[in-house]
Amino acid sequence: MQDFTWPEGKRLAMSFVINIEEGSEMSIARGDKGPEPVDELGVSLKAPIRNYGNESNYLYGIKAGADRVFGVFDKAGIRTTVTAAAMALENAPRVAKMLVDGGHEVCSHGYRWIHQFSFKEDREREFIQKAIASFEATTGMRPYGWLSRYLLTEDTRRLLAENDFFYQMDDYSDDVPFWDYVETEAGTKPMVVMPYALDSNDMKFWLAP
Asked: What are the pLDDT digits (tens) for 38-51?
């Protein structure tokens, strides 16, 4: 495996990432069969009814949290990578504007915050392309990075390469980026794999409260 090096011989790079998923989670109000099962209050409803408390919890990041988080990075002069579900920015144009005005990079967290592991190839390709089109409409830029909602398919990396993505974050095997080489119909394409750091992910509070 080829070593990964930074430009100009730099030895360290810091990657600051903001996740935006709110507004793209499962919701009866959006026509889904059931409510979002991830509920920080621990009330995971199985019945197909609206969970108004959980819906309001997901609104917090959009209404109150985004201004604070983007404000901190803007004050420090730090541009981040924003791993956003495309639908989330469709439903929160004010937050999309914060992303653009702050000079941040958009990385696709899927079209919406759902699992894609059960998708057949054609459906997954459409899911990826729909996300690209959505980000171009909401931010004026297309994403070149991808982060799935944890589960992915054996086709995911190839489909990303075929759609001109430069890097993927669906990996936990290292502390530093590394190169992968993806076989496509057009030939072999290089792709940077950016391992996802679980020690700084909010799920540690969810799993061990």
From this structure: 888 878 888 899 99
